[in-house]
């Protein structure tokens, strides 16, 4: 009776062992498959990494500023000239130099004109009456026999004329023309530009503002870089909001420090403290007005070294006549317009549009476009041997 039970127990034990072994094998297989899947995913991620080329460091001076019109004028209402009438332009109109903007009409002057016209009319009537009386006497003179005349012909002309009255009336007419010229005063555009008319009218707001469409960069440079600037130095000017890049030149360098809000502070003593550093006004001409508007905030960069910037040809993109690259600026992809020079093997010289340490996208497997976000530290740095302040670029990015 007991033997069959022992055999049955051994059978169950063997079955449990077999099932356990199968379970262990299944777990190992699943783990292996997961590891292999993760490896494949990792490989795919590595294969989709963005490749960056970092523009090598070049000693530069940076100028922050605002795009400013070369000419701008506000036309305030002048009550002494009269009331503003006949506004011949509208907001946003483009006008040429010499075009009529508006007119002043002076009612007080018009009243003087009316009074002077009445005086002239009275004088004209008095003159006509005097001339009539004179003519009667002249006729009598010539009808009287010569021996009976009491005066000569010369005396007749001297006694019976309206010369004084004519002179007075002519003077009044001259005064009338001068008054009429002051009644309506026409205001002309002193230069070509665009009209801006305030939507709200108060005593403090101008009738209109005229702004020229030729611009310059009004900026400041700190005292540390002041002596490194020179007239006619070439500059790349980047619009902060759009990334548009234009070129320009240094036109004027102020020798007196700016005041008020334009004075900033710079850390010149490390962690132990800081000291103020004056800023000086700088003016740059711009080579084109395309892509810029009055009030745009920009940054100009001036290379102090005669060193060409070159990038891989693969990074260059075109859109019609436009040439640009994608760049990663603090984690955001932007477009930067560039100008190209000569080709150098697999690279091409960039004459303007890029600054030192720009992260230029070379290969873009993820299809990044302007506005997309990507941590540049997740990409591959093609020239990772380039150092910034003695550190490897990749280390700098990760930090």
Secondary-structure topology with pairs:
Blueprint: H1 2-47, E1 51-54, E2 60-69, E3 72-75, E4 83-85, E5 94-95, E6 100-105, H2 107-143, H3 153-159, H4 163-183, E7 184-188, E8 193-196, E9 208-211, E10 215-222, H5 223-226, E11 234-239, E12 245-253, E13 264-266, E14 275-277, E15 279-286, E16 297-303, E17 309-312, E18 317-319, E19 322-329, E20 332-337, E21 339-344, E22 347-352, E23 359-363, E24 380-381, E25 387-388, E26 391-392, H6 393-398
Parallel strand pairs: 1-24
Antiparallel strand pairs: 1-23, 2-10, 2-16, 3-9, 4-6, 5-8, 6-7, 8-9, 10-15, 11-12, 11-16, 12-15, 13-14, 17-22, 18-19, 19-20, 19-23, 21-22, 25-26
Helix pairs in contact: 2-4
How would you describe what is shown here?
Residues 256-279 are annotated as: Disordered. This is Efflux RND transporter periplasmic adaptor subunit. Pfam families: RND-MFP_C. Residues 309-362 form the Multidrug resistance protein MdtA-like C-terminal permuted SH3 domain. This protein has 6 helices and 26 strands. It has 399 residues and is an alpha+beta fold. Among the domains are: 41-58 and 308-399, Beta Barrel (conserved putative lor/sdh protein from methanococcus maripaludis s2 fold); 72-188. The strands form 7 sheets. Strands 1, 18, 19, 20, 23 and 24 form a 6-stranded mixed beta sheet that branches. Helix 2 (107-143) packs antiparallel against helix 4 (163-183). The longest helix is centred in the N-terminal third of the chain and has 46 residues, at 2-47. The model is unreliable at 35-46, 261-274 and 387-399 (pLDDT under 50).
């Amino acid at each position: 009776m007991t033997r069959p039970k022992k055999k049955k127990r051994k059978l169950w034990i063997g079955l449990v062992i077999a099932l356990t072994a199968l379970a262990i094998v299944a777990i190992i297989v699943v783990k292996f498959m997961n590891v292999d899947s993760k490896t494949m995913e990792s490989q795919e991620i590595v294969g989709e990494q963005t490749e960056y080329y970092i523009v090598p460091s070049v000693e530069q001076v940076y100028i922050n500023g605002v795009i400013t019109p070369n000419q701008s004028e506000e036309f305030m209402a002048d009550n002494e000239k009269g009331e503003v009438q006949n506004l011949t332009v509208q907001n946003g109109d483009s006008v040429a130099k010499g075009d009529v903007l508006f007119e002043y009409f002076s009612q007080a002057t018009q009243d003087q004109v009316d009074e002077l016209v009445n005086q002239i009319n009275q004088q004209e009537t008095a003159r006509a009456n005097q001339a009539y009386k004179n003519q009667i006497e002249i006729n009598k003179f010539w009808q009287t026999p010569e021996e009976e005349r009491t005066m000569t012909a010369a005396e007749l002309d001297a006694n019976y004329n309206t010369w004084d009255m004519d002179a007075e009336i002519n003077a009044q007419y001259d005064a009338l023309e001068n008054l009429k010229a002051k009644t309506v005063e026409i205001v002309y555009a002193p230069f070509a530009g665009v009209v801006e008319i305030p939507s709200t009218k108060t005593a403090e707001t101008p009738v209109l503002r005229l702004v020229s469409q030729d611009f310059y960069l009004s900026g400041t440079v700190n005292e540390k870089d002041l002596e490194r600037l020179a007239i006619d130095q070439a500059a790349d000017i980047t619009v902060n909001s759009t990334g548009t890049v234009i070129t320009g030149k240094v036109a004027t360098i102020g020798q007196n420090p700016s005041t008020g809000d334009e004075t900033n502070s710079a850390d010149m003593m490390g962690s132990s403290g800081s000291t103020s550093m004056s800023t000086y006004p700088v003016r740059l001409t711009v080579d084109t007005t395309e892509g810029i508007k009055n009030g745009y905030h920009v940054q100009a960069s001036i290379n102090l070294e005669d060193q060409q910037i070159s990038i891989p040809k693969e990074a260059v993109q075109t859109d019609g006549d436009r040439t640009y690259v994608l760049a990663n600026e603090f984690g955001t992809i932007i477009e930067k317009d560039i100008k190209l020079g000569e080709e150098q093997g697999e690279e091409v010289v960039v004459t303007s549009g890029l600054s030192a340490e720009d992260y230029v996208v070379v290969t873009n497997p993820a299809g990044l476009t302007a506005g997309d976000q990507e941590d540049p530290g997740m990409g591959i740095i093609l020239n990772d041997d380039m150092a910034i302040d003695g550190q490897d670029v990749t280390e700098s990015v990760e930090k």
